[in-house]
Amino acid sequence: DDERARVARCGLDATRAAALRATPLEGWLASWYDAPLFATLRAHPAYPVVLARRRQGQPAALADALEAFSPGHQPALRKPLATCPVPALLVAGALDLTYAASNDELAAANGLFQSVRVPGAGHAPHLESPDEFHAAVREWLDRP
After folding, report:
1. Which of 114, 137, 124, 138 is nearest to 35 (CA)?
2. pLDDT, tens digit, for every residue of 113-125?
3. N or C terminus: which one in the chain shows less Cβ crowding within 10 Å?
4. Phi/psi-derived region of residue 79, left when phi > 0, alpha when psi is between -120 and 50, beta in every other case
């Protein structure tokens, strides 16, 4: 909801995109995944597979996506989501405290939303705990 934070995030993502355009992909990926946000993913046995897949990316396209999809470009949605009439499943890794708390707040504001924390997972629950992630999604989709 903070306009200054969105502007700052746009600047940060523009800087990251510029670095991606100017740096070999391997080095940029090492820097990207070195962020504390990805600590649980880096420690996961699937990390080498994830990294190998990311190395197949096209740096220019990734840089464009990083800028275009920066959270700084997204409008503040917390208030509109509180009254959204469409049910939603909000999934976060239990170890990703920031995103999990945000999801819990959204679910508390909108009774049609359900917040699920995937045990043992951080910011990438679909990669770190795929079975638990898929089970949560299947359970939600199967509910009446």
Report:
1. 124
2. 999 999 999 999 9
3. C
4. alpha
